Amino acid sequence: MLLQDLCATPIPPGFSLPEEVFIHPGAGDRLGEVASRYLNPPLLVLSDENTRKAALGPMEKFSRAFSGQWREMVLSGHAHTDDPTIAEVMTEGGGIGGILAVGSGTINDIAKAAATRLGVPYLALGTAASMNGYASGIVAVTSNGLKTTLAATPPRAILLDTEILCAAPLALTQAGLGDLLSKPVSLADWWLSHQVEGAAYSELPGRIVSEAIDSILAEAAGIPARSPSALETLARAVVLSGVSMVVAGSSSPASGGEHLISHLWDMRALAAGRPLRLHGAQVGVATLITSALYQRVLSIRSPEFVPPRLWEAEAERIGAEHGPLAATVLPEAEQKHRLAAKRLEFLRREWAGIRERLVSFGIPSPDRLRKPLLEAGAPHTLAELGVSREEARQTLLNARDIRNRYTLLDLAYELGVLPDSADEVLEESGV
Ligand SMILES: [Zn+2]
Fold first, then answer.
1. Residue 144: pLDDT band by 50, 70, 90 thresholds?
2. Is residue 237 part of a domain?
């Protein structure tokens, strides 16, 4: 089906988006036919040891259709989206006409980055509805220890076979729901950065994805039952969330302060040589925290604004708080700090109106957001993630440093809610 058929809101022409999306039982069997429409052989098929097994049926049919015209690269199940891995795939992909990504988050990101750099098209055969990056125009990559995003070209087509999605490990599907849970909070953050720092903003990305996300939140109980209908709804929502980022021109509609918390957890895990947890599982729990923080911030009618500290003092704090990651974090934090005085002046003047508009976003309470996580059996506590209370406190206080993107985490400092109320916020979030 055409991408437009996934949502009622018209998607304006002119965006770099997948032309076709197949979400149905048996969609994987169309792999050969769809690949021949969009990719010129020879092809590189990229998967990992787990996703390759998940897509055995479709791959068998594909290999018959493309006999002798493809080669394969199977990464380890622990591969990360980082510069060395992308470079390895690009070397393997020398002289190819296109890439076929068989996998979910990591494989899709690596294939998208490599295809963009090689200047060839790619297709995504998704093996789990575990994140919203299939259709997006960005790749989340770790570069010198910093989690950042790169612009990249979306796939020409996406195939999400609901039979494969139903068979995927439940934790992956639950993570997909967690990644989408952030939408109401991240949309508010996006509007906030538009107001305070003039970031480009439009209501269209939110409209494109809203109905699909509301549907899967209402159907969350179907996730542990592996209901094909719930998986189809989830698949539609993760694709449209990716589309919303393309239409926005950035990840902002789907990535606010809760994503910064999740990214900092990843950065610290990588720096310590620990395995990464599922992105969406972290985002779900982090969204409960930022939801609680929003409730606090929006309860303040007459704030006592806290003037920005001198950059030297901030740099010293960052050195102490981020340890080995401080050098990669400092440039982002410094850029953000440059506008701190101007921001505060604006906030002082406009707080009443900003507060009122943020209230009108109707950001759900932690309890309301927890409900679909509970119904889906998805992680909703720090303990389930293996994050200690102290680590969560540290991350809540320092995640704002890692990206030059204004979010609630910055606002909370400027209104004096953080750092002092961090413990209360964690308590109120119920994580
Ligand atoms: Zn995400």
1. confident
2. no
102 and 112 Cβ atoms separated by less than 8 Å: no
CA of 259 to the centre of ligand 1 (A): 6
Centroid of ligand 1 to alpha carbon of 264 (angstroms): 13
Q: Are 108 and 77 in contact (CB under 8 A)?
A: no
246 CA from centroid of ligand 1 (Å) = 14
CA of residue 419 to ligand 1 center, whole Å: 25
Enclosing H/E stretch for 43? strand 43-48
For the segment 159-215, what is each residue's pLDDT rounded down to a tens digit?
Answer: 999 999 999 999 999 999 999 999 999 999 999 999 999 889 999 999 999 999 999
Q: Into how many domains does the chain fold?
A: 2
User: Are 193 and 407 in contact, with CB atoms under 8 Å apart?
Assistant: yes
Same-domain pairing of 155 and 283:
no
CATH of the domain at 10: 3.40.50.1970
If asked whether residues 256 and 163 sit together in one domain, one would say no
**What pLDDT is attached to residue 146?**
83
Closest CA to 16 of 150, 155, 113, 172: 155
150 & 267 share domain: no
What is the extent of the structural domain holding 411? Answer: 189-196+250-429
Unique residue bearing structure tokens 């923080």: 293
Query: How far is the centre of ligand 1, averaged over its atoms, from the C-alpha of 135 (Å)?
Result: 13
CB-based burial, 210-233: b 16+ in 10 Å, e otherwise: bebbebbbebbebbeeebeebbbb
Q: Are residues 144 and 35 part of one domain?
A: yes
| CA 208 / ligand 1 centre spacing (Å) | 17
Q: What is the mean pLDDT of residues 131-154?
A: 90
Compute how many other C-beta atoms are within 10 angstroms of the C-beta atom of residue 76: 10
Determine, yes or no, domain membership for 81: yes
